[in-house]
Amino acid sequence: MSDSPKSDFIRDIIAADLASGKHETTITRFPPEPNGYLHIGHAKSICLNFGIAQENAGIGARCHLRFDDTNPEKEETEYVESIKADVKWLGFDWGENLFFASNYFEFYYECAVHLIKNGLAYVDQQTADEIKSTRGNLTVPGTPSPYRDRSAEENLELFAKMRAGGFEEGEAVLRAKIDMASPNIVMRDPVIYRVLKAEHHNTGDAWCIYPMYDYAHPLEDALEKITHSLCTLEFEIHRPLYDWVIDNCPVPAKPRQIEFARLNLNYTVMSKRKLLQLVKENLVSGWDDPRMPTISGIRRRGYPAAAIRNFCHKVGITKFNGITDVALLEFEVRDYLNTASARRMAVLDPLKLVITNLPEGQSEDIELDNHPKDPAMGTRQVKLSREVWIESDDFMEVPEKKFYRLGPDRHVRLRGGYIVKCTGFEKDDSGKVVKVNCEYLPGTKGADAPAGVECRAAIHWVSAEHGVPAEVRLYDRLFTVEDPDGAEGGFVSVINPDSFKTISAWVEPALLEAEPEWICQFERLGYFVADRHDHKTGEKAVFNRAVALRDSWAKK
Ligand code: ATP
Ligand code: MG
């Protein structure tokens, strides 16, 4: 699926630019700001930018990983490392093309000097409030600053003074001199430099003036000779400024900005600010809590990278903002894992079943397919013993209509093994069934039910003697409503209290030997992954539920 030919309006533009000879190859970039962990929305951008480079690798196409770290205040190296790990895990490779926008500070400065010399930028000493209030609005044009017509010499001197630390924060900014009456407010002399007396993680205290995003970004793209600069729709109204910067600065290339719709998911918050709040307020266990829409959370949850790529492909690239149903992501995970993952048996809500005609201490090897449709995945042996664990809800004292599993005098098949007949059960003082007795029917292993025996279901089980205990974490959607951002009490008020539950389960011994991040289907239950941090091979089994077999939200 992920290999099928892709087409969308952006790929069409790129193909046309290659066909016409405008470009010999294509160079894209993924430019995260290292101020948080990447989320599933970023995955869409990664799959697009790196995907285009991959598809055109034959003509030398590439995708740059560029850290947009021009803002000194909120960036951290922890984020840089997590972003690299996430892009790699998603299956993409930037090769040699790792860049930091903060390495271009001198270039942005030179370009600003160039603009000033050409009468295209000026130092404004109005306050931030004055600048804001004189910008006008959709119907009222902006009012020119009293400093707008300073000479180039004076501006050069003042800008140098800004750089030298001669102004405090808010005392002076550099503005592009464009058009205060432009119908596009973005073009009304935007601020392109501000004073910020802040330490930068890369350049330390070398700078006390920092470029604004709308000014620095096109320069970064041009300097790296990006051919197609792909961004989300909210930047559409900024495109004239992007082009203005490119057209008026001494740059080595002319990249083209193209906008596409960002990914929005229901039942999810995606803004980094809100994700940070969830982490800071301990509402989740961290950035990689398996309920988080971060790449690292999704990974820990057990969503395979290939399923995420398939999902991004299915969502596609358009110009229309919409909301994607998170069920589509879950569907892609199930769809991928159904084919790709091995089957194992685990009992999450154990009830003891005693096979009274199987002697104590005796066990029998049962051979099971690892995958019902893929013989290449082979088979494995599990041991059947006198006492086994079954799911509590596979037994009903008074079976309901259409309940075909175990009940008094009923038959059921133990998956891969014999048919057993229920011969009795025991309750505790509270009336809860705590033990079920049965007898197996010799000769029914791998054979049909004998005449006169009705057996309409098979249930999974784990030998009580051979099985191992496991900690199983059941995750569900983090929010109870489709639009948590729009919740009256704020998104925190609609956190799903049932989104995380830890239970003690019994699992096949093989699961203890699984490597962290190994994913399988627990038969009849869902897809589960060995937790990448807490599962200890051979010592402690800890599994996370990625997704249940069926969508339990669809009915609601
Ligand atoms: P946030 O608004 O959550 O802070 P951001 O857009 O500021 O996110 P960046 O680190 O600047 O985050 O994003 C890096 C790239 O990922 C940008 O090119 C941005 O357009 C893209 N991106 C971010 N969110 C989404 C999304 N939901 N869908 C598609 N692309 C996205
Ligand atoms: Mg951003």
Q: What would you say about this model in short?
A:
24% of the residues lie in helices and 23% in strands. The protein is of the alpha/beta class and 556 residues long.
Question: Which key features would you list for this structure?
Answer:
alpha/beta, Ribosomal Protein L25, Chain P, 12 helices, 25 strands, binds adenosine-5'-triphosphate
Description:
Helices cover 24% and strands 23% of the residues. The chain is of the alpha/beta class. The chain folds into 3 domains: 9-260, 3-Layer(aba) Sandwich (Rossmann fold), CATH 3.40.50.620; 272-340 and 470-548, Ribosomal Protein L25, Chain P (Beta Barrel); 345-466, Ribosomal Protein L25, Chain P. Strand 16 and strand 17 form a beta hairpin. Helix 2 (40-55) packs across helix 11. It starts with 8 loop residues before the first helix and ends in an 8-residue tail after the last strand.
Biggest sheet, spatial arrangement of strands = 10-23-24-25-21-22-11
Strand content: 15-25%
Q: Helix amount, in percent?
A: 10-25%
- CATH third-tier fold name of the largest domain: Rossmann fold
Taken together, the total number of domains comes to 3
Distinct small molecules bound, one entry per kind = adenosine-5'-triphosphate, magnesium ion
> By helix and strand content, what is the structural category?
alpha/beta
Overall morphology: elongated
Q: Report how far the terminal alpha carbons are from each other.
A: 30 Å
The gyration radius over C-alpha positions equals: 31 Å
Number of helices: 12
| CATH architecture classification name of the largest domain | 3-Layer(aba) Sandwich
Q: What's the CATH H-level superfamily name of the largest domain? A: HUPs
Query: Main sheet?
Result: 7 strands, mixed
Which spans have pLDDT < 50 for at least 5 consecutive residues? Answer: none
Mean pLDDT: 96
Per DSSP E runs of 2 or more residues, the count of β-strands stands at 25
